[in-house]
# Entry
Amino acid sequence: MDKLWDVVVVGGGNAALCAAIEAAEAGASVIILEGAPKDYRGGNSRHTRNFRCMHQGPLSVLTDAYEEAEYYDDLLLVTKGKTDERLARLAIRTSETCLPWMERQGVRFQPSLSGTLSLSRTNAFFLGGGKALVNAYYNRVEDLGVTVVYEAQVQHVDIEDGTFRGVDCEIAGAPARVNGRAVVLASGGFQADLDWLARAWGPAARNFLIRGTPYNRGVVLKDMLDQGAESVGDPTQCHAVAIDGRAPKFDGGIVTRLDCVPFSVVVNRDSQRFYNEGEDVWPKRYAIWGRLVAAQPDQVAYSIIDSQSINAFMPSVFPPVMADTIEELGEKLGLSGAALKETIEGFNAACRPGTFHGNELDGLATEGLEPPKTNWARPIVKPPFYGYALRPGVTFTYLGLRVDDTARVTGTNGLMTNVWAAGEIMAGSILGQGYLAGFGMTIGTVFGRIAGKEAAKHVA
# Structure
């Protein structure tokens, strides 16, 4: 640990690994400081399944074309315009070259899944999921001679007059110092620090479930902000989805996500609907439901489905609650059976005839109902009936470090000399609110690669 490293990479997920690969390929000596034990390496990346990619024609497993204008419009739709257009377009344009680069590093892809995750044109799915991607990258950095240290909890990034000198950390509980000529910060957001979440959101945040890694506590982020790094993003904005209420407090991962919402009626603990379940296709709307549920009493909601729709979405990791009547289902879920029956009957009465198409916007809408359901509005009438409890599941937070288009971090006196950031720690530059399926991996891959190249160039 007495060595002076060319590039110190703080973090061990997708963005960190992409940075390490690029820096090592450029000839730099690289060390990765991963806060998690080896079995839990990879941060939130090990829970991912796909990468959103621009392409002007068929590319690898991707079909047709998904060009810049459409991609950017999709991003604007979910962020409601809260994005840095320059950085967003950089991420979008560069994503096209990233997919073949990923394949060269050993990442393998498979055709997209069916049902509500049918994204064959926009998203490339990892064969074996995010953990296979992470393992492929770790194999690659090993081949390149990168040193990886696990259980390396970075406590302080030593910055003097805007210049990085080294990091103070604990390695397996013992204090250590790692010095370097450049640093790439890719240590994620602060979502696993429940006290910080509660300060941002209020006490209700303690009811949130953290579907991602428990190791992203924002220690490096706070340290950098305390030293004058310029912040970007809103601490109350995050990638938060509706997940199964039976999921563990931390690290339940993507399997706890529920894709049933578009084909269901969603009610709060008072058995009242509160939002349009059929607003848009699920990949463009799933990430708003965490915040919607978070705003309900006790931060809980319930998805109600009948036998017509139970096979219309990806199967859940936990079986749904089942009953022969709506009243019985309500009681099993801890709701008023009578109140739930009244809500469902009101919804059924507002449904209108039409043709149901589960994989596209079908215009099958309610009439005279508030809030409306504008697609996939079939009466819930066919027993048995099914229900899931929903809780907000936070993946990552959007408060982060401001960077330029070379991924260099901005401080109080302008750009820092030799400090770069990539991944969730800077994603708030592009994601002001909302989320687009697979876009977190795009940001991490694009800016991880840029940061690694730039750090190595600085050292050279």
User: Anything to note?
Assistant: The first strand starts at residue 4 and ends at 10. The chain has a mean pLDDT of 95.
